[in-house]
Amino acid sequence: MTRCLFLLSLFIPLSVQAEIYRWVDAEGRVHFSDQRIPSAERLDIQSGRQIQPPPAPGPNSPDEHYPGPYSQVALLTPTSDQTLSDPAQGVAVSLYLEPALVEGHQLRLMIDNRVMVLDRNQTQLRLKGLEAGRHRLQIQVWGPDDRIVAQSASRIFELKLPSAPGELP
């Protein structure tokens, strides 16, 4: 009798159904749950299929402007393609972030792919020690999970050595 029940159970299709919901919160984080949330989308999960998680929200390229949860993330100075001619004075950098930096986020200034972590409310600074030549500058906002949540478009500017008196540029 036990054998018959066991064999019979092999032929009865088992139906397992679970509803999974996905939503993105105000800070751009993706969540999954088996509980329905008003703004969530229901995912169609079929047994036996491998599902790739959706890509984390973020910029599509390292140079593009991506405001993320901010309305404005911008470098005000130096301007694009600006030529500066006094390296000793340094490069004045001014940035704008609206609204203010979210708790847990961190400002980072990218200078030629080098990282400079900024103080929480630092929006004005002077870069010294840059060599003559073209430089790439960008502001990024990093989240607590160590990923970019917002960034400005990158800026290219040039730093030239000043001409000596009596010398043509």
UniProtKB/TrEMBL annotation:
Stretches the record annotates as Disordered: 43-73
Regions annotated as coiled coil: none
The UniProt record lists the keyword Zinc-finger: no
Domain of life (superkingdom): Bacteria
Signal sequence region: 1-18
Pfam family, one: DUF4124
Signal listed as a keyword: yes
Keywords: Signal
Domain DUF4124 residue range list: 7-57
Name used for this protein in its record: DUF4124 domain-containing protein
Protein's organism: Caldichromatium japonicum
Lineage: Bacteria, Pseudomonadati, Pseudomonadota, Gammaproteobacteria, Chromatiales
